[in-house]
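Morning, I've got a small favour to ask if you have a moment. You're getting the sequence in one-letter code plus the fold written as tokens. Thanks so much in advance, here it is:

===
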Amino acid sequence: MIKPTEFELQSYFLELACSNPKLESEKFFDYFDSVGWKIGGKAPMKDWKATVRTWVRRIKEREHKVELKKFVETPTRHMSNAPKIEPLECAPPPEDWKKLLQDLANKKGV
């Protein structure tokens, strides 16, 4: 495998719509340069573009988890500021409710 230049890496990170292509391409280059361009420190890298795609996919997964965590926590924060709603208090039915209903029905002509 021919080692990519930093420019090639940055261009490919940009092509993959990485959120910070310059920083991530530098991190990628520094990491793999330090381990001799080997995967897992053992096997020589065969396809640097495939490795970059995996790198970017993991970045996006981490970003998604952070966004999901923010989304899940946000309603809780807002709900704590919501006004309290008291339950309605209904008067108990009168003991002579049947008579009351009959009187109402008579007044309406039912």
About this structure: The chain has a mean pLDDT of 83. The CA atoms of residues 64 and 70 lie 10 Å apart. Helices lie at 6-15, 21-34, 48-80, 97-108.
